[in-house]
Design a protein that fits this description.
Blueprint: H1 6-25, H2 29-68, H3 73-100, E1 112-118, H4 122-143, E2 146-154, E3 160-168, H5 172-176, E4 181-187, E5 198-208, E6 222-227, E7 243-248, E8 253-257, H6 263-289, E9 306-311, E10 316-319, E11 324-326, H7 329-333, H8 338-362
Length: 363
Amino acid sequence: MAHIPQTRLDMVIDRFEQIEARMGAATDSTEIVALAKEHAALSPVAKSARELNTLRRELADLQDMLAEGGEDTEMLAMMREEQEALKSMLLLRERAMQILLLPKDKDDGAPVMIEVRAGTGGDEAALFAGDLFRMYQRYAQLQGWKMELVSESIGEMGGFKEVIASIKGENTFGRLKFESGVHRVQRVPDTETQGRIHTSAATVAVLPEPEDIDIKIEDKDLRIDVFRASGPGGQSVNTTDSAVRITHIPTGVVASQQDEKSQHKNREKAMQVLRARLYERERQRVDQIRAAERKGQIGSGDRSERIRTYNFPQGRVTDHRINLTLYNLGKVIAGEALGEVIDALLAEDQAAKLAAMEDESFS
């Protein structure tokens, strides 16, 4: 394990103290909010740095005492035991500090737009998409997040052909970012009369939605079409052209909204989805450029990548990216144990980033 330089710890503590001093003097509301965010993010890092400094001083003092020696062999033996205990504790603290110092995704704290779409499998795929959406609903509730439905397209037998929702709360994208991809289900559908197991799929996309989103959208680059909203089977659900479809002409990215009765509200929600999709497109472009940085990530986040299988006959959930299998499918699909899968993915991501960081330090 690479040793964290003392100068690095000093920089963290100095920056934290500068923020605290500035917070007491700042009067501009925008600056106060920015300082508060940085203070909250840096607080556990500064605390860990101070604890690490204390341990390093204690170990240095003990080593000086041992170097001086003495005739009390029993006391020397006790000091050597304490030295070994301090070294072990220091090793654990260094490891924890390294994790805190890992580069953070700037969007981890951003709210998200989550999109779940039925894939292959017809009606069963739509039912599975509904199961996945309810899984994220329950998980969001357990996290204390606020989830708001943006748009939905109901399947013929229930579930969703497509459903989009926004989720706001602490570290939402940081927790959900590895959920993007193809989710596969293996089970006997309710529509199956002969008890045969079917395989269906649904696609999940988790898009960060930063509040200070830096995507510039020009009015001249938008084509806005209005039309009459329709329900299942194509029947008209209102008599005015309230539904909105917005196309970003340079990229071809499209967002539609028809759930609201007001054309203005539909346009507002469609723009919200469009911004998130354009921002995600830009994120992926930058990620491809930074190919070297991507080796430490779990999966590609590509919507076409098969990431997880939910096997009902065996009661198991398997995440293919980290070869994780859990035999508590009922609790995972209910959202209650989804955190176990997410925690494992985040731990694997941290381990990969640590290994990459250590490789760089020795290269």
